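Escalation from tier 1.

The customer reports that the assembly of two entities below gives different structure tokens on two consecutive runs. Tier 1 could not reproduce it. I'm attaching the input and our single run for tier 2 to review.
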Amino acid sequence: MIKRFFKYLANLKLAIIILLIISIVISIGTIIEQNKEILFYQKNYSTLIFNLPLWKVILFLGLNNIYSTWWFLLLLGILGLSLACCTMIQQLPTLKFSRRYYFYKQVNQYKKLQIKINAIKVFPSHLSHTLLDKEYSLFQQSNSFYAYKGLISRIGPIVVHLSIICVLLGSTLGALKGFNSQELIPKTELFHIQNVIKNGFFSSIPQKTFRVNDFWSIYTPSGLIKQFYTDISILNGGGKEIQRKTISVNNPLLLKDLIIYQTDWGILGLRLKYTNESISKLILQLPISKINTSNQKIWISSLPSVGQNSTSFIVLIKDNRGQISLYNNEGKFIKSTNIGDMIYNTDLTRLNLIDIISSTGIQIKCDPGIQLIYFGFFFLIFSSLISYISFSEFWLLYFPFKVISGGRTNRAKVKYNLEFLNFKQSFFS
Amino acid sequence: MSIVSENISLVSNSVFISCFVCTSAYWSIISMRDTKILRNIAKITSRFATLSLFVLLTDRWIEFGYFPLSNLYESLLFLSCLLLFVYQVLEYKIQSPVFGGIILPIVLFITAFAVFKLPLEMQKASALVPALQSNWLMMHVSLMMLSYSLLMVGSSLAILYLVVFLEFEDYVRTMPLRTAAYEKSIRRDLGLKSREEYLNLGLHLIYKEEQDIVLNIRTNFLYNIDSWSFRSISLGFPFLTIGIIAGAVWANEAWGSYWSWDPKETWALITWLNFAAYLHVRLIVGLNGKIPAIIASLGFFVVWICYLGVNFLGQGLHSYGWFV
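Tier 1 run:
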């Protein structure tokens, strides 16, 4: 019963149907926006289907989060199982079969071959020379020949399947034991992993301490951001530095079990120095908020008037180059100020811009499945190329006045036909 | 500024015009008659288009210092250049106007889209965004492009196969009818009363021979298209595999996850699954012809959605050529 079930799973037709279903399901995931709030679906999918609003159907089937619903994961599991069954039940036995060289000693065995020759006489030494010249492995037993080449291509498809299974297992392991967290850290601050956005059932989050030593960005002459860097340290329990690296986008810090990525950046506030005649010095921190425009990051804040003679400003920051733009309350541009410069200076008061407090977006990830996945990737590349090599076979049986011969191949049939023409020269008919 | 980048619109327009001329030359060869002049026109214009696209892309590479695949405009031109290269190879291997007649309209469409439809800001080269500053860019994107071009050629040949095959099926089905019609007209023209007299003339044998020749030519043609479609798909598929893997490894370095179910990734996977099904049907089941051709021609649309259609969705991480 179980064996019949596995045999059914190994069926190619079933596998192709599963591939088709998976394709359709994941394409649905690109049409319906994923991981939005319920309100979004209520607003955008309000059409009625059989008196049922579409958004309810979407939420019920988990189409809002299709790539991690139970039935999609089940589908992937069935695919993996089908691959494994196919490898165990169909591929491995043929490998065993083709390793044992076997001779065709009955004439009717030649009937089902793709290419056949009937002749009167064969010149065995000439034929074996041709076969060996074409890199065949040749076996001879009394009056029959068997030759093959390209045995490695038989392993190719098996390794393809095994490496896909590796990738699936690796991603399962990663989903169960890994985690992913995102932190937005002001520069010079210490932090722990706190804002975990994704974790699995068996994940454990290490209590390491990190410190952002510095954060800076570089820009192209036209003012576009070129790259951003974070100088990050890992501290031990006593606060001593263990490791330090400057990370940037495309250049993460690899630890034994964690990977630390540079992802985003932001501005948290402005630090100002207020000098008054009566109060000698006052350091202020001005909060700032981000405006989401279509493709540009802009931060905005307002600088209230202090005292009677001073004016109030609207502060606008476009990038992390240490410059702020000041506008008056009507929205008219007044001036740009750099770090360290004076914002205004009257007889009584002075205001200086000391610093722009920037923060760096750090992503910390742990994925114990990644080795297995890379292992699978590595073999997938090679085996997908090997699978195209032809496995060709050649048989011959000869009697005093009758020779019968034939062969078959599984990939390059035209090339094999040409090879066979060469073999024909050793026959006399 | 080099001469090419100063006159970029001139270069791209001339590419478009030469593709147009080449397409019309091939189509008139196929539909009307095969003359040497038309062949030469097609040859020269296609060579010219290939060369000028190649020069344009190389010039961008030298001038801006990175591989010319950073935005949609460059990738469209890169794809047309690759398609033209594939076509040149096929043309060199088999001197059949069919490949030109199929591939050049696709190139024509791509260049027209790139030159006339894309806004001017999207045509300009701009600095690479931080996420693209990696050596993986060259590896991943060029492999994906190469596989797209090979799969597009293979699947468009499969579509051609299907069209010709359906017509051929129809032709074979109506053959007895036409034989009967021929017999009737001959008997009427020569005033033969009985069937015996007609058969004694032996005209039906000549007719049958002619029909056999026609059938033979058409079967050969179908066989060739099928086998070339299979060859280019089976070459494109490993490139797609390696390209997706390179992308996954890169994404693990730049985005922090090797697979994030981004629409582009998802459609690349659908393409992969589709052609995996094609190869299984073809190699393991051992079917040739109609059923694999249906799967492959489905793949044509899937590749196009993956390459261009996803950009219209305007969501996800591959945000290098959106229209929104």
